[in-house]
Please model this.
Amino acid sequence: MTDLAALFKISYGLYLIGAKKENKENACINNTLIQITSEPLRLLLAMNKGSYTHDLVKATGQLSVAVIDQRADMSFFNHFGTKSGRDIDKLEGFPVLFCSNGCPSVEGNICALFAGEVEQTIDVGSHSLFIIAVQEAAIKSDYEPITYAQYRNLKNTGSIEIIKTEKKEYKYICTVCHYEYDGDIPFEDLPDDYKCPICGVGKELFIKV
Ligand SMILES: Cc1cc2nc3c(=O)[nH]c(=O)nc-3n(C[C@H](O)[C@H](O)[C@H](O)COP(=O)(O)O)c2cc1C
Model:
């Protein structure tokens, strides 16, 4: 028995993938993205070969990946997720920002932004799997990322509860196992040979968030 409803139980985030070739800039919605390594930092993205953004990424090897936050509404998802840059200029009318690799993204509706380069492409028939080496990463807002389940809720009911992260002290988190340092000694003052108590990696693999 294959109950396809089971697929809705898989958790995802939602991302805006931006790319540029010559003077043509474009972006589209994607949910199939994960971090696969931390040293070096790599992401894995699956993209349908039929999308224009796929063609731009394939041609240039450069892209931006923005984490969409809970401010995004259905018109944002419909615009970037159902229309094609082959037919219209999808970024027209949006406040566009550019990453260091020249790839576009948008101001607002995003809480984090990555710029990267395709290191390897794996052909899986209808889709390409892009393994991306991250060159740049930045927090863009205090809003929480939207999940695929919240997106479906937004689509069905027209609203979701918007969550904004409360301003807090910085924390240090292990990028490998996500252990949050909670010791009494300030993280900066820990000895250079400090190791994550959960997975054993060194201090250099912790990030300040
Ligand atoms: C919620 C949502 C999730 C999507 N996830 C993906 C995805 O994971 N992979 C993909 O290739 N397309 C995905 N799409 C579809 C593309 O965004 C869509 O085909 C888009 O129109 C392509 O635009 P382009 O031709 O300008 O690149 C998704 C669309 C929506 C609305």
Remarks:
- The helical segments are 52-60, 74-82, 148-157.
